[in-house]
């Protein structure tokens, strides 16, 4: 028996109560919907302001015209199955869609305008909607058989309010848990542990159970899920040697592609091992003892000219003054004299001149003289290169000098592509003969053929950061700009670092009032005689400050390189007074005031005076 409309227990629906409109696939919250005792279904709609006035994608607007009596009767007599065909849940009705008679009854009885009702009647589409793949993996199209439970479990994990709740959702739904749920659980755990102001309490048993779940299921993870879980586990503070991190790391390594086996290294003997070490672009890392051991293990037949040339270039390039290796090169040159050409010999002799090392091998110089006499006319550039190395060692053979200074040799090299470099080397040899060989009576290089030897600072001095700039500033503040010259090239072509003109009383004179060059050849001796003790009639002396940087020496030693020692030796023989400034002393000065004090002590030690008292 149907209850009258006005009886107690039944009240008219209020517009401010009831369900909040929800979108497709969402449940109704706070709705008063269902069937009463008499079997009558009613749906109460709330006209709250939170309902969007813009429809979502896929929704269609319903008719807003009030139904006529005929339409009302047709709607009341419609079969109930009509409302059951609507697949997505609609508003707050338990079956997903309200019956047409209850819908129309509400619309007719609601005390609301058409404008307020227009935001309520949103009909969802019938076809299922697929929102695309999530970041944890693809979902079956159209929702699939497991799309709903899997997505629902992920939402539950993301909304969990405690670690225990996380563990409950994972443990109580084993058939719905997928691999991508575990990174979601770890991320949510990190959010819970970092929540403010008071994070929920966490029991160790809960963390252990969560770890065991991940360990038990990690063999089914893909490599991306393993990386994410491993990263999150480390961020959450799980120990690196704990079971969780170890299991994930083991699975990660298991999925890496296998490494190819290393190629078989051939067994190298002494000479081959030495050649391999010297040919490696990182052979500076090989210690000297490794080179010495490889050389000692090599037999005489394994030491080829190519290997010894590599060794000689290695020593020269890296300024390694290693006597045992240099003696081995000298011995090889003497033994293989008949098989070596001058082009190979020039490379073998290079480290001796550069490193300022005269070998103990007794037959070294006689062997070179024989090779030069045999090859001088065949390879003029190689001949001059060998003589340059011997010049640095002060071991110039007279017989070969006669040949290279002869007009026929000079005319022969003048038409070659390397004529300029040969003339520069011959000019240096002529200077060495002038200053160091008093007994030489043979031909000399004509003056018209002479060129400056080193007309500018060396490339290494220009490229590397040295102390020249700060020394120049110290001299400028100490003496003044007019009392020194920087990078001045003096005859016969040597570049000086700093040059001072000093009177006989020791006063530093302005350079512009004096000739900064000493005469060359020295006036004390005619051409062809030695200038070991030059004397000049000029009362002013020339003091040359020589910077001795770290790269001017052999590595790990105090021996100047051959070219630097030759320059200082020749400048001293020409009459210049040298004042060396070692790099160790310059590096120990902290700041410009200390450097000025250092330079003052150096200059005063020579008896120099400047300023008001020096004139």
TrEMBL record:
PROSITE patterns: RAP (PS51286). SMART domains: RAP. One of its GO terms (molecular function) is RNA binding. GO terms for cellular component: mitochondrial matrix; ribonucleoprotein granule. The lineage of its organism: Eukaryota, Metazoa, Chordata, Craniata, Vertebrata. The keyword DNA-binding does not apply. It comes from Diceros bicornis minor. The keyword Electron transport does not apply. One of its GO terms (biological process) is mitochondrial RNA processing. It is found in: Mitochondrion. Keywords: Mitochondrion. Pfam families: FAST_1 (PF06743), FAST_2 (PF08368), RAP (PF08373). This is RAP domain-containing protein. Residues 543-601 form the RAP domain. Residues 1-26 are annotated as: Disordered.
């Amino acid at each position: 028996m149907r209850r009258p409309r006005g009886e107690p227990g039944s009240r008219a629906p209020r517009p401010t109560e009831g369900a909040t409109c929800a979108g497709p696939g969402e449940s109704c919250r706070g709705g008063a919907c269902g069937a009463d005792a008499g079997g009558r279904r009613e749906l109460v709609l709330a006209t709250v302001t939170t309902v969007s006035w813009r429809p979502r994608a896929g929704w269609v607007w319903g008719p807003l015209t009030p139904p006529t009596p005929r339409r009302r009767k047709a709607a009341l007599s419609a079969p109930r199955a009509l409302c059951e065909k609507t697949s997505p849940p609609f508003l707050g009705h338990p079956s997903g869609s309200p019956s047409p008679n209850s819908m129309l009854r509400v619309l007719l009885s609601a005390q609301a305008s058409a404008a307020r009702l227009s935001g309520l009647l949103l009909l969802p589409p019938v076809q299922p909607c697929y929102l695309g793949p999530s970041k944890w993996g693809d979902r079956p199209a159209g929702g699939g058989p497991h799309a709903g439970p899997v997505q629902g479990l992920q939402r539950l994990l993301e909304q969990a309010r405690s670690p225990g709740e996380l563990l409950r959702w994972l443990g109580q739904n084993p058939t719905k848990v997928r691999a991508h749920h575990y990174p979601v659980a770890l991320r949510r755990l990190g959010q819970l542990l970092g929540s403010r102001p008071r994070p929920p309490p966490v029991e160790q048993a809960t963390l252990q159970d969560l770890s065991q779940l991940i360990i038990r299921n990690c063999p089914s993870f893909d490599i991306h899920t393993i990386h994410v879980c491993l990263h999150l586990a480390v961020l959450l503070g799980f120990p690196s040697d704990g079971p969780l991190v170890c299991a994930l790391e083991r699975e990660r390594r298991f999925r890496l592609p296998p490494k190819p086996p290393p190629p078989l290294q051939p067994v190298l003997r002494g000479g081959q091992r030495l050649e391999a070490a010297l040919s490696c672009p990182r052979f500076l890392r090989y210690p000297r003892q490794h080179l010495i051991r490889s050389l000692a293990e090599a037999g005489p037949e394994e030491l080829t000219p190519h290997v010894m040339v590599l060794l000689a270039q290695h020593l020269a390039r890296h300024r390694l003054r290693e006597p045992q290796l240099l003696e081995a090169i000298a011995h090889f040159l003497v033994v293989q004299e008949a098989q070596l050409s001058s082009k190979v010999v020039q490379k073998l002799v290079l480290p001796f001149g550069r490193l300022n090392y005269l070998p103990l091998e007794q037959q070294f110089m006689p062997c070179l003289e024989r090779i030069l006499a045999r090859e001088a006319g065949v390879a003029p550039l190689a001949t001059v290169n060998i003589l340059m190395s011997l010049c640095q060692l002060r071991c110039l053979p007279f017989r070969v000098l006669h040949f290279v200074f002869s007009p026929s040799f000079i005319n022969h090299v003048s038409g070659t592509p390397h004529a300029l470099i040969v003339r520069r080397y011959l000019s240096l040899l002529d200077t060495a003969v002038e200053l160091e060989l008093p007994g030489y009576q043979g031909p000399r290089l004509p003056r018209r053929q002479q060129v400056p030897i080193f007309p500018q600072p060396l490339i290494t001095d220009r490229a590397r950061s040295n102390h020249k700039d700060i020394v120049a500033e110290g001299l400028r503040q100490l003496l003044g700009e007019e009392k020194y010259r920087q990078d001045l090239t003096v005859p016969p072509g040597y570049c000086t670092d700093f040059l001072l003109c000093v009177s006989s009383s020791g006063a530093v004179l302005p350079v512009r009032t004096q000739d900064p060059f000493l005469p060359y050849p020295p006036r004390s001796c005619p051409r062809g005689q030695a200038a070991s003790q030059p004397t000049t009639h000029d009362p002013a002396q020339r003091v040359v400050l020589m910077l001795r940087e770290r790269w001017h020496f052999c590595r790990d030693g105090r021996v100047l390189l051959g070219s630097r020692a030759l320059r200082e030796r020749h400048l001293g023989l020409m009459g210049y007074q040298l004042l060396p400034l070692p790099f160790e002393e310059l590096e120990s000065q902290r700041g410009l005031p200390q450097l000025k004090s250092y330079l003052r002590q150096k200059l005063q030690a020579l008896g120099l005076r400047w300023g008001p008292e020096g004139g």
